[in-house]
Amino acid sequence: MEGLIIEYQDPLFGLILFVGFIFIIALLTYLWSLYATKEQSNHIESFTQRFYINTENQGLDPLLFNPQTPKESLLLLAQTYFTSGAYEEVIKITLELLKGQKESLERRDLLMLLARAYFKAGLYKRSEIALVELLRYHTREPAALKYLLLIYERLQRYDDAIDILDSLEEMQEEVALERIYFKFLKTAHAPKLTLEEKSTKLLALRQHPTLLRPIFGYLLRHNPAITWEHLDGEVALQLIDVLYRLPKEQLRQVAPKDAKLHALLCALGAIDEEAQPTGNFTIDTVNALTPSYKARINIAFIYSCDNCSSVTPLENHRCPSCMQALSMRLRTTLAPKDKHEAYYAF
Ligand SMILES: [Zn+2]
Question: Does the predicted TM-score (pTM) go above 0.70?
Answer without folding.
Answer: yes
